[in-house]
Amino acid sequence: MSAYSAKAPLGLKIAAGAGLAFLHLPILLIFVYAFTTEEKSYQWPPPGLTMKWFAVTWNRPDVWEALYLSLQVAAISTAIAVVLGSFCAAAVAKSRFFGREAVSLMVILPIALPGIITGIALRSAFHLADIPYSMWTIILGHATFCVVVVYNNAVARFRRTSGSLIEASMDLGANGFQTLRYVILPNIGTALLAGGMLAFALSFDEVIVTTFTAGQQATLPIWMLEELVRPRQRPVTNVVAMVVVLVTFLPILGAYYLTRDGDKTAGHGK
Amino acid sequence: MQSAVLFKAVSRLYGDVRAVDAVDLDVRAGEFFAMLGPSGSGKTTSLRLIAGFELPTAGEIEIFGESAKGVPPYRRNVNTVFQDYALFPHMSVRDNVAYGLMIAGMGKKQRHAKAEETLELVRLPGYGDRAPSALSGGQRQRVALARALVNQPKVLLLDEPLGALDLKLREQMQEELKSLQQSLGITFIFVTHDQGEALSMADRVAVFNQGQVQQVGTPEEIYQRPDTPFVADFVGSSNVLPAELVRELTGVAAPASLRPEAIRIGQGEAHAATVNSLSYTGAVTKLGLQFRQIQLSALVPAGMPVPERGTSVAIGWDRTALHMMGQGK
């Protein structure tokens, strides 16, 4: 206790400050450039500040198109992930069968593999199966790693949920569907929601797998990458970057709070 | 008398393991029935077979005269108090107790009133708004009991319900369960590994060992006249005399049980034994005696002279104290 309650020495404080600055200053720079009056290059310090890029961004149809596609992809792949991930978690956590550990490992593998491998694998698979690249191929690609996130959250909660809860529900007259609705879902609900939010955030800013599985479509991150090459209206990219930070950060924050509280309630039953 | 639960040669196999091995049981309506045995003896599996969480590999189970075959747990008029209580952590105590009624489609007002009534029955009035996590172990146990009883089951199954409670609370709950059972008239089937608990609470006891029922009888029968060496040893640690020794003593070749309290120590007794251990437990001192080729335990009540370790003593017993048994399974 005393080792932690003592005041941190000055050197440590400076080191911590430097570390934080290293992590967050570049992000702040992005925000600052969203307000610069210089549109061709990132000049420091910005020659002047303006709000006009927000209006410009608002009126760019290609931004809306990319944003809409990204939201669609993230929403659908998250939905697929929630269904598949929770089923898979239920099977692995609640029953014993031959190859259970192998299945568990194989579900987690896509997130352990470098995205580029997943991307190449999917691209060649789509090619072999003669599937044209479309929004759906992007969704399939994203679902591979979204499932993992949901699965990890759900399996942890399932393991903490006492198996006798389900038996107790059956014992008290509830059939399988009622047990799912009144006992299982309320118990794993926050874990699924948290997993879903993380999956959504992951999908929303994914670049590598998307590059390999997209055809002509550009999701928001891909659009940004393309935009950086063009020397015109650069701050628009920064405005979009701010939006991306918000859209991904909020679900991650939400997921953090949900699982934190969820852990408490899940631990209570024991 | 009507049977509440009837087992006809019921077996439950897990691979090669015979968890329940051709068990016949007849639990009568309205009785307090204990299933007693060490862990892994098949008593909990038997309970789960009645609840419907396990299906018999062979044999048939009848609940109040009707075959339980193909009847899922949620259609059996049987409720369980789980060992870990299994209270729903996301519901209040009231919603936990009213769960069965909600599933049955009873209106909110009515089922909440019923739940409160049942909470009073288990002496937890006014606890409805609390979360299960805010209760002590003893209170959770009562909620689990209320949740099972509110559905007015024909049979209440209790799986080691007192195992997690401390001694004092356990004794109090034993009395309460007993009086609850008598006032409600519901058949209670109670699983325990504690022979004291089984003997003090149950009308009849079934002693389980290795998946088989060794003996079914009243606590007195089980204690005084064990059928097998296992029952004699497990229920109240009786001395078991091997058949060989019994033949030397009485001429009958059968194992026999001899209760420690039935052994008299003092001059004029017929047999010689050596004291090789002493342990003082308060009301009595336990003696370990070497008698011929076996070890006997005997009790000396407080206030009586206690022989010293290593000394030779004369011991004896009434002829009727020696209870002949079968070989057992």
User: If strands are numbered along the chain, what order do they take across the biggest sheet of chain B?
Assistant: 6-7-8-3-9-10
Summed up, the domain count of chain B is 2
State the share of residues found in helices of chain B, binned by percent: 25-40%
> How many DSSP-defined strands of chain A?
0
Helix content of chain A: over 70%
Main structural class of chain A: mainly alpha
* CATH architecture name of the largest domain in chain B: 3-Layer(aba) Sandwich
The number of distinct structural domains of chain A comes to 2
Alpha-carbon distance between the two ends of chain A: 28 Å
CATH class of the largest domain in chain A: Mainly Alpha
Percentage beta strand of chain A: under 5%
How many strands, what sense, and barrel or not for the largest sheet of chain B?
Answer: 6 strands, mixed
- What is the general shape of chain A? globular
Describe the structure.
The complex is a heterodimer of chains A (270) and B (329). Chain A is mostly helical. Chain A folds into two domains: 12-50, no CATH class; 61-259, MetI-like fold, CATH 1.10.3720. Helices cover 78% and strands 0% of the residues of chain A. Chain A contains twelve helices and no strands. Chain A has helices spanning 2-5, 10-33, 52-58, 61-94, 100-112, 115-128, 135-160, 163-171, 176-204, 208-213, 220-229, 234-268. The longest helix of chain A is centred in the last third of the chain and has 35 residues, at 234-268. Chain A is globular. Chain B is α+β, with helices and mostly antiparallel strands and 329 residues long. Chain B folds into two domains: 3-226, Rossmann fold (3-Layer(aba) Sandwich); 237-324, Nucleic acid-binding proteins (OB fold (Dihydrolipoamide Acetyltransferase, E2P), Beta Barrel), CATH 2.40.50. Helix content of chain B is 28%, strand content 32%. Chain B is built from nine helices and 18 strands. In chain B, the strands form four sheets. A six-stranded mixed beta sheet of chain B has the order 6-7-8-3-9-10, sandwiched between helices. In chain B, a hairpin with a 2-residue loop joins β15 (284-291) and β16 (294-301). In chain B, α2 packs across α3 (108-121), α2 (93-103) runs parallel beside α4 and α3 (108-121) packs across α4 (137-149). Chain B is elongated. The chains are: A mainly alpha (270), B alpha+beta (329). The interface between A and B is medium-sized, with 22 and 29 residues.
